[in-house]
């Protein structure tokens, strides 16, 4: 790719040169967008926004209300349309364990004001995820564990993962509306709700709108959120792709572990 879609290698190298070999292993990438890279530095307990085009770093304190040692967070960085000077960071998490993880929370930082807005929250849907939990109780380990966000329209979406089960499973999609500054949890298709974390990815659907890529062995399904004439939204299966017909598979590959989703473009 050519600029501005491709960052010169020298720019990223210049950013990395500011960190020594020990510190770089404490960086956890949270996403990139509009020429900006958002990471969390566990060593400093700070968020780092790297402007890869201008080779600049911005160090942001974790805002009040977030305890990343007790409840992991995810985030997204973006610029407003037509704004090449300032940026915003959305940090999302769940309440900590002593708060029973009954809500997701979010806060927006603006580089223009140098501060964060008020905390916004939304309840997590009740779910009895094990035989030891009563009806209407909440899982105790729901988190946005290192999931990749996607910007669709004026909302950012993350996968909401239930870590209370033996295998991480998809529990919903978290939406943050940038215009209205509100959070919402969107249910996922029942057909894929019990798949493990490596088998789905939230993405932009063909033709626009919110979509999900689901992968089961060598079969990939593309889902899209559709709204009917009454304004009711529901998931519709758009397409099924047989990857074994596209990939050069052999008996050794088929006996090995199934393919997983690492990202999308």
Automatic annotation (TrEMBL):
It comes from the Eukaryota. This is F-box associated domain-containing protein. It comes from Aegilops tauschii (Tausch's goatgrass).
